[in-house]
Each structure stands twice: as structure tokens, then as C-alpha cells.
Amino acid sequence: MKRRCLGCHALILSGSYCKGCNPRRGSTRSWRQIRAGVLFRDAYICAVCGAGAAEVDHVVPLGRGGSDEPANLRSLCRACHHAAH
Length: 85
Fold this sequence. Notes:
Strand order of the largest sheet: 1-2
Shape: elongated
Number of strands: 4
Number of helices: 2
Structural class: alpha+beta
Order of helices and strands: EEHEEH
Mean pLDDT: 87
């Protein structure tokens, strides 16, 4: 299903931004710091099943108006993160 880029409103096939407007190109230092802080805050425990967590998930996805603020992030194990998507 085609959708509109959140930056320039061009039609795209996947994601929230077209290649020209993508504000997050790969992992940045600030994202790695936020991610590490969220995992530490949650004691490396999955918010869904209680197993060990190694991934961080957006509660409200960026494409739906979410942000990278820690309040919008939760720690998940790999299985729960992939089941959520």
C-alpha cells in the first residue's frame, strides 16, 4: 500500500519518509544513548513477557506521530519486538 512521506508528501511504498527526507539515516550517537538509557531504565527486562530485553520499541510509532522521547520507548525481547510488528 502506498503512503505519503511525512516530510515532502511524495508517494512511498514503505516507511514514513522517502530517501530524501529521512531524518534518521542509520544509528546515530544520540539514538544509541537514548536506547542505552531506556534499556537501563527498564533493567533490561521485556515490558511484555519479563524475559531479558535487548531491543527498544516505540509505543507510538514515528509514522503515527510518536517520538524518540524515553516516555514513548520500552524495552522488549527480540521475540516480543518481532511479534509486535
